[in-house]
Each structure stands twice: as C-alpha cells, then as structure tokens.
Amino acid sequence: MRLNRLRMDTEGLHWSFDHSYHHNGSNNDFKSLIYKSLAEYTQNFESNKTNNHCTHEYVILPNFWSGYMNDSPSLAIGGLKIKAKTSKSDINYHVMYENRTTGETTKLNFDCSAYGIPEIKNSWEIFCKSKTNDIYSSIDMTGQIVKSNSKTNIQLKLSSGVKFSAGTKSGENPIICNWALPNLLSKIHNKQLISSTFDVLENMENLYNDCVFKSLESTEIQLNDNSIVLNGYCLYGTGKEPSYWWLDDNNNVAIISTTFSTYVLRKVSFKEDVI
Amino acid sequence: MRPNILFINTDQHHHNALSAKGNKYVKTPNIDRLVKNGMSFEKTYCTDPVCAPSRSSWICGLYTSETGVPLNGGRMHEGIPDLGQILTSNGYYAAHCGKWHVDGRDVRDSFHCLYYGNDTIAAGGAEYYDTTSTHAAIDFLSNYDKENPFFLEIGYINPHDICEYLHDYEFKNIPALEKFNLIDEAALPPFPTNFDYDTNETTIHRVCCRENQMIHNDIRQATDKWTQYQWQYYIFNYYRYIEKADIEIGKVLNFLEKTGFVDNTIIIFTSDHGEACGAHKMFQKFTLYEESIRVSFVIASLSDKMDIAKKHIDNTHFISGVDILPTVLDYAQIDIPSNIHGTSIKPLAENKTIPWRDFAYVESNVWGRAIITNRYKLVTEYLPNEDSLMLPPNSQRNKYGKSQLFDLETDAGETKNLIDDGEYKDIVKSLFAKLKDHEESLEQPMFPSSVKSFIDESADRMIEFLMR
C-alpha cells in the first residue's frame, strides 16, 4: 500500500533540518526531540553570563533510518560536547563526539586564535575509540600544520611514531576546525568579520579547501514559553557538501544539519567542565 | 614473494567523475594519483548497476543472474566460494573494512573484519562510516606483522550519500535554491546535454524508472518539477561526496607510503556502479545508460618495484566486475576457479598482449540486458514467462521485449535510438547473436525467494504496460 506522504515542511520546521517524515514509522518523534532539546537549552541559558569557560552540548539525531540503531531506546544516535576555554589570545577546545551508529567515540584537543578568525594554532590531539566487536579498536594521533614554500601540509603522527600527510593545501586560506566554526559564524553574522573562504579541518584530520558560509534566511521556532529566531547559513567547499548552520540571537549555533545528521543544541554552560 | 593487495572501492561513482579525466567540476587528487601510478581501463562496466548485485559479482566472478543477487535484497547462493574464503584458504590474510553489501553472505564469515559499523553497514551512510573505515585501515597497516601477505578491502560508501540528498526530496518542498544565490554560476556543473530521453525505452526501464515507477517514485515526482539549477545543484552535491571519498583515500595512500608494505602492494580501485547525474532525466542508477553502468578501474602501485605500467590509459579492453576475483587471485598466485567468467587483468596491467573479449555484458533489474561493443550498444529486455518466473530469463525461455541501439562513436550521449533503422539491421542481428552466445556460458539457478515479490510485481507491471 502506498503511504500517504505528508508535506511536513509547513508544520514548523525549516526544510533544511526537517527530517520528521523518515521517522514517522517509529515511536520516536524527530520533531519533538528538536523542540525538547531547544527548550532545554533556552530555559537554562543565562544570556547575561560570560566566562572564559564555555561548553556547548548537542544531541545528534539521524536524518534517515539508514544507519540508525533500531534497538536503541532513543532516536538520538549520540552526542557532541564542545568545551572552549579562552585564555589570552588562544581558545583551547576539548571536543567529544560520540556516535552509536558508527560505534566510535572521538576526542579532540586543539587550540585556535581567540581574536579574529579562529584558525588552528599549535599541535593537536585526536583519540578515537571503537566499541564495535570488530578488530579495529582505537587510534591515537597528534597533528600539526607544516608549512614549506607555497604548500601547507596537515601532518598526522600515529602513536607508533609514523607520520603521514592528511592533506595539503596551497593559498592563504586560514585553516579552521569544524567545531570552531560556530565561533567564526557568530563573528560573520555580527559583522566582526567579512565572510570569505577558509579551509575546514574536520575532526582535525579531513581537510576541505575553499569553504564558505553563505547567508540563507531566518526562521522562527515556537517553543512552549518562548520562541527562538534562527539565522541560517549554508556551508560548502571542496569535499564539503552543503550543510546548514543555524545561529540564534545569543550567538549560539542551535542546529547544524548535514546529509545524515541533525545536531541540536541542548545545553550551554559556563563552568569549568571535564570531558 | 606474493604481493599484498589493497582493494579500494567507492560506491556509485561514475567513470567520468574524476579530475584525472578532465572533469573540472570535481577535485580528486588522490584517485588521480592512482591513475598516474598505474593502468586505467576506460571501458570498464559493472555487471549490474545496483550495489548488492554488482558486489556479488566482485567476490565470485559470476554475473548477477547466477549469484542469487539480481537485486538489492537478493540472497547469494550457498556454496559459491567467495574471494575472502579463497584467499584465506590459500595463505592470505583477507581483511575487510567498510561497505560490503553482498546480500546473503556475511562479510564476517569470509573476511577478518576490521570494521563494519556498530551493527552492520547497510547501503548508505558514508558520513557515519567512511572516516572510521579509514581509521581501521590505517590501524591495520600500522600493526600488521604476520608473515602472510594481506588482502585489504576498503569499501567507501561515498558518493552514495547522494541517495540521501535525493531522498530528502521525497517528502518535503525544498525550494529552488537559486533564489538564495548560494553557489556561483561558474562553480555549478553544466546541465547534461543528454537530458532528454528516448520515449521508446525498454518496458522494464519504464516500469522501474519512469511513469509510476517501482523504484523511488517519490523522488521522480519531485525531480519532475526541478529547474535546471536544481539538476545542476544535485550534480554539484554529488561531486562534493566524491571529493570526500577522495580525501579518505588520500589518507590511506599517504599512510601506506610510510609503511614497509608500499613496495609490495598492488592497489586496485573501482566502483560498484555509476550515477546518472541527470543524464536522460535520471537520478541514481538502475539503468543501462553509460552514466549508470560505466565505472573507473585502476591497477596501480605507489612503488616502482611492481610490474605495473604507469600513467597508462587503456581504451581498448572491456573490463567487467567479474574480472576482480580472477585478477586478485592471479596476483596472489592462486589458481583461478574454472567455472567463473572473469579474466585476470594482470597481464594487461603489465602491458602484455593477450586474447580478450570484445564486448561487455551487463544485466539490470532482472529482465534488462546490455551488450556493449567498440562502437555499438544494444539494450534489450526479456519478457516475463509465467512458466519460469523464478528462473533467470534468457533467450532459451523468454521472448525479447523492446530494444535500443546506440552508436557510441557518433552519439556518446545515447540520444538516438537506431533500433528501427533498417540500415543497422545486420548490426542488431549480430549483437543479439553475441548476447545469445554469451548466455550459453551462464549457469543460472533459480532465483532466491527473497526477490519473488519484485519479480512478480515487475512482471505484472511489464505485462500491464505492454497491454496498453
């Protein structure tokens, strides 16, 4: 029997992050989880508070059934925690990305510039641990940017000591970790920076050249007690298919929608936190 | 010393989507590096333009009407030895990570499984799995210390994520994005010059892919309303997914180069099938047009110590997915089973002259067939025979339905169907004879019951369509 396909985009979520339909057959409600997470965030967010410690926590929702763990009690397939500590001219990031579908948890530790474009500074650490029953169990790497003549090399080093290139680039684009992009986006949105091209180092190991944020439009999500206005941007570049980033008026990226995942902000805290 | 073999494959990657082939809308420096370091075969065709069927041929050297996997959801016949089993029983360490998708055959039973998702990797999800597959491969290359040579398959899912890009259009109204001025006109790939399609296509193609189609009809309905920009934007997205896979491949090659294995490792690169990219107003695969069935195939080595011709483009030999298994076994110095169809490409990669087939043979959606020769391409179909619905169709038990003939030399875009042009009568006759001859070499047991519903429905729809 052919299903009666509803047009969900008229019912509250922007088309760029509305994946409700693909979960209609389950007990899990994609849309309500977005509302729930955003409500939790807005209710507890202290907009007048600042600190040199700031942690953003996201819940990760699968956009499609493909890859979703059917035996999981929740639709959410994992979480993302971005902890930023600002000191003098640097921001130190600790990131933890956990995805039950892949079975892999990634931890990153890196520094970027606090002023202007948040480009990567110094060396960094990547630690990935797999919880599957297969042979691969973990990988532990450090990385650094090595410049020579006109080329810039992303050099990774395994814990065994073997060094290899994760990619090279030419040109003057700054290199920014994808998890520091909220910082960049808020500066672009607030006109502290002019939007121009940059290179994204995704999870500090996948280099996407010539990326750019392009303004999309604004949308408003009505929560129980209040509403949240989101300003949409589209990010794309070499190796980076268009994804949609939604910044709220508190300069927090509330939603990121990629091909397979929707990251929804659920908590922002200003206390020192350990990942 | 027997070589290590690294088999890297992408998913849904059509033959022309490499910068090495002059495509200026996609950047693939790492796959290009393989092209520079090896022999590329330009006339390479998958055995069937769908994931599971094509992959079933890779691992056993048989066509999809023989393997039990003529469709996604088929079931590989028990008792057919697969590549992992043969390599393992002949002293190789056969390892796998990433996409497998051979329905009815558990990869963990045939290979040492480095990584296959937290549960299993099904059809899609490159965004989830591809980087972890790279981690698993690098971890393996970093730690492998056995005396046996290894075979490592890395199954990258991208650019298959374009399927989910398209699935997004099934249920929501995504506006025409030109109004947002997101992408500069110059960066957009051109609108396909062969967007129009022959209205006299085969019946199975029409019931699967055109009116009220059996496969992805909701996407079809959405694309019917697309502007030229939306078609171009879809191709733009497709190329980004290819670049993602290329970046993963680059990390593996760069790491391999830093290991002691590089001087003794053969690298094979290909894809399971292509992607229509708007040609003939089609998306995804499932068709017998070139964009859907033609793929890249490269045999390379990053070292100068292996006997592989470098920077060599072969425009002569027809390569098929059935050639993977015998090629790997030939490099591994293992006897090639006599009952398979493929032939080892190793002598060709060494620039030797050997007798070779003069055509490619492709199956599709159970009933569809194509024969491609140097100049001409015949696309045809078998009509359902209700006495033998669960037996693979062939000229012994089925009648031919509609057919198409294309002159690939003068009409590479397959825009002029010459099947009814009397001038080509003898060519058509010879191509049908070639099809019949080839079929006589096939051993086609009954289809598994898991594909019965598709066969029943497609047969009903074909008959209904022909009765109109």
Structure description:
The complex is a heterodimer of chains A (275) and B (468). Chain A has a 15-stranded mixed beta sheet with strand order 8-7-6-5-4-3-2-1-15-14-13-12-11-10-9. Chain A is mainly beta and 275 residues long. Helices cover 9% and strands 50% of the residues of chain A. With 468 residues, chain B is of the alpha/beta class. Helix content of chain B is 32%, strand content 16%. Chain B contains 15 helices and 13 strands. In chain B, strands 1, 2, 3, 4, 5, 6, 7, 8 and 9 form a 9-stranded mixed beta sheet that branches. Chain B has a 4-stranded antiparallel beta sheet with strand order 10-11-12-13. The chains are: A mainly beta (275), B alpha/beta (468). Chains A and B meet through strand 8, strand 11 and strand 13 of A and strand 4, helix 6, helix 7 and helix 10 of B.
Rounded to an integer in angstroms, the radius of gyration calculated over CA atoms of chain B is 21 Å
The largest chain-to-chain contact, stated as pair and per-chain residue counts, equals:
A-B, 61 and 58 residues
What is the helix content of chain A?
under 10%
The class by helix and strand makeup of chain A works out as mainly beta
Q: What's the helix count of chain A?
A: 2
What shape does the CA trace of chain A take?
Answer: globular
Which structural category fits the helices and strands of chain B?
alpha/beta
Largest sheet of chain A: 15 strands, mixed
> What is the 3D form of chain B?
globular
How many strands, which pairing sense, and closed or not: the largest β-sheet of chain B? 9 strands, mixed
Percentage of residues in strands of chain A: over 45%
Q: Regions of chain A with pLDDT < 50 over 5+ consecutive residues?
A: 1-10
Tell me the span between the first and last alpha carbons of chain A: 48 Å
Radius of gyration of chain A: 19 Å
Uncertain stretches of chain B: none
SSE order of chain B: EHEHHHEHEHEHHHHEHEEEHHEEEEHH
Range of strand content of chain B: 15-25%
Averaged pLDDT of chain A, please?
Answer: 90
Mean pLDDT of chain B comes to 95
